[in-house]
Amino acid sequence: MSIQKVGIIGAGTMGNGIAQACAVSNISVVMVDVSDAAVAKGVATVAGSLDRLIKKDKISAARKDAVLARIQGSTRFEDLQSAQLVVEAATENYELKLKILKQADALLAPEVIIASNTSSISITKLAAATSRPDRFIGMHFFNPVP
Description:
Elements (H helix, E strand, L loop, with lengths): L4 E5 L3 H12 L3 E5 L3 H20 L5 H9 L1 E4 L10 E4 L5 H14 L5 E4 L6 H6 L7 E3 L8
Parallel strand pairs: 1-2, 1-4, 2-3, 4-5, 5-6
Helix pairs in contact: 1-2
């Protein structure tokens, strides 16, 4: 399976950093969070990070625009359905992660890989909450991501 789009659940510190890392790598992203304000803040954080790279002559303004164009922000969980890989990047709260993962598992096609960015919760326990433990991975990024 080729990964054309990554879905990210959570637009906070880790989620927006993962979104940036994917978009810089020419992968389309849909970043979902619970409120428009959280999504807007996540996208703005990516834009600010890219601005710092422009100031250091690491990327051009055109490259920044191209990267941002690959990031779709949303409050609709359903928008994750077009992704081949979905990364959960919510707060380190076991019950919250279980709720999110069960919701994602019910929504996504069986072939979609689900990943968790958890730093401390058992991947085996999280995977067991889904119908696809064989397509569930731990994908922990260190902070800051990009």
